[in-house]
Predict the 3D structure of the following.
Amino acid sequence: MTNGGFTALSTIGMLGYGIPEQSFRRGVELRPGMIGADAGSTDAGPHKLGRGVPDVSRDATRRDIDLMLQAGLAAKIPVIIGSAGGSGAKNHVQWTWEIVQEIAAAKALKLKVAVIHSDISNRDLKLAFAAGRVQPLGAAPPLDAAAIDATVSIVAQMGVEPIMEALDGGADLVIAGRACDAAIFAAPAIRAGADPGLAWHMGEILECGAMCAEPGSGSDCMLGVITDDRFVLQPTNPIRRCTPLSVAAHSLYERSYASQSAGPGHVLDMSQTRFEALDERRVAVSGTRLRRTASLRFKIEGSRPAGFRTIVICGIRDPIAVERIDEMLEGTKAATTQFFAHQPDYTLRFIVYGRDGVMGRSEPTPVIDGHEVGLMIDVVAPSQEQANTVCAYARALLQHYHYEGIKATGANLAFPTAPSDIPCGSIYSFSVYHLLEVDSPMALFPVEYRDLGH
């Protein structure tokens, strides 16, 4: 690492959200050593992983990659994409690779691409499970051979080593499958000689773009400069600033424990971390340390089919209906259950927004204190046809439900769209959310090099 340290440019909190070009250009002018973007998350649940679809639009993703790639090639610095395509599985990596091919062909670009897959076969996971090398992560679903067989896609979260190998191999662009979000930025910093604890902590902040700034945004750029004993965060957009409070608060993001964070083969210790304002817009972070763990374990994620969904979104405005809403919902559910007693393998639920729609049974004040409520009818069944049928039956009953005190005969529900019933297609659930113990940080993540434009 040079005396000036290593500089990493985070372009956005999620690839495909739309990189702000002016902020990006300011960051590139400060001559970073890499340009990176996280492209994935489990925040949206298991659907993307199971169905093999992205979470963002193809056009927006192409625009963001084009911007990053041309700047990286011009400055001769690597571009790193983590958790490609949303979940980082084979289909998502291929989707991203095809976009890169299109850009290279359209712009006549020459580049070396490192593609890192992170998929695990059902067979290999069953062998590891039988050998006692798989452990649940938190409240993970029960796992056995049958659950693994039912799983349609399994990935592991890579650490820094596969990305470092790709950079050692001369990659202009790294398309990484499922990856620890922080590894995208920690890997090139550690490779440049940075302290691993500081590098991982910087990565945990940079992966969210400008979320650590005031005002925070996951759709803006952030610069991190790491030296021997600290890293400095600086937003590239002049309307934002970093403060010790904003950076410290974001260091608690998605963390079970305030002073530590676990990763593959390590625990990040922030009990002695310090946040210091350098000026009105920059904050220095120091004191974070990395402790190696006795075993090397990677988080693994797997998704299995869970049926088909149909929903209805509507509103209830009549004051008597609002007052009698529990009577209406309970009566509708009872009648639906009776009518479909011959095919009970479905679920029907009503979500009441304006009362307890967000927190459900955990809502401390489940009362309606407004003049209207929003209602979602949600049906999940083994087939789309059955989900459509049950949802239509429940919606029609509720639409014309005769409750005590009713003044009209057909105005219970207000629909904002037509058709009112929305088939959502196949849905998925996490069947694997565990830790897998391995002997090598490269064991699950093969690196493949591909040339474009040569």
Summary: The CA atoms of residues 163 and 225 lie 19 Å apart. The chain is about 30% helix and 25% strand. The chain has a mean pLDDT of 95.
